[in-house]
Automatic annotation (TrEMBL), chains A, B:
This is N-acetyltransferase domain-containing protein. Residues 2-163 form the N-acetyltransferase domain. CDD domains: NAT_SF. It comes from the Bacteria.
Length: 168, 168
């Protein structure tokens, strides 16, 4: 079973182990593949309003996501999240669980909508997953992401209005 | 004639006089209508890679824009700009001049594209202006902006690939 809880400082080592290979790969997040651990902690922990971890039965960290307002005050009713699942925990529905949790959490915190600003088009499983969770591709940014292996690729802006009952 | 040059610290008083009524109105930018002068200086001057002023024949500041990368490293080839024209200088083509200048400046700095993340749909003159300058509405975010007078209104994501000769 996967449980979601707020990030605690002692989780950082596990969270960084999950984030590092994803950021280094440069295929799904825009951060520099040479990002330092300290810089990663700023973007994933310090800047967001909240960061969560998905933990397994033995308390092991399976994945993590952050939640923050996507814009300043007059756009701050739209949330933004980023999700990463550890390589060892793929295929177990952890991303889905985090996506559902993040929507409920966003609603609980008063957000009205959620936006993903840069869903890399080549990350097809993510695009499909967010679509299954009710997110729509509202637009596609031509060549907006410089993929480390594929060069310039398109990225999608995905969006969902959350003004509805969330089934947890 | 309108001339564009880099912002200098002594321009701040004039720039803030231009920004303040626009930010206070809360109709086109997401910053809090209660933003302080110090906060405005951070978002308009400190955070961006560069800020420019448009000046008239007598050296008076007519408008201002900022230029910055829209995303981290792997999305940092896409620029983002924000433009404000002083109320006294409306209808003189200052926004057009700044838009053209910003594209040339972005290309000169190595950017490949430009993105506006939150063009408020009710700001129709701005939408049309950016379209005339080659920007496309790549997507519309439903109710993503809380307009101080109109409530939740749609916002557009606009985008232009700059890989072309820019006629100045």
């Amino acid at each position: 079973m996967t449980t979601l809880r707020l990030f605690q400082p002692e989780d950082w080592r596990s969270v960084w182990q999950i984030l590092e290979p994803i950021f280094r790969a440069g295929e799904t997040y825009p951060y520099s593949p040479n990002i330092t651990e300290a810089e990663a902690r700023v973007v994933w922990i310090d800047v967001p309003a909240a960061t969560f971890v998905a933990v397994g039965d033995r308390g092991e960290v399976l994945g993590t996501y952050y939640l923050k307002p996507n814009q300043s005050e007059l756009g701050a009713h739209v949330a933004n999240c980023g999700y990463v699942v550890g390589e060892a925990a793929r295929g177990r529905g952890v991303a889905s669980t985090m996506c559902e949790h993040s929507q409920a959490e966003a609603v609980a915190r008063g957000f009205k909508a959620m936006q993903y600003n840069l869903v890399i088009s080549t990350n097809e499983s993510a695009v499909k997953l967010w679509q299954r969770h009710g997110f729509e591709i509202v637009g596609t940014l031509p060549k907006a992401f410089r993929h480390t292996k594929l060069g310039y690729v398109d990225a999608h802006v995905m969006y969902k209005w959350l003004d509805m009952a969330i089934v947890k």
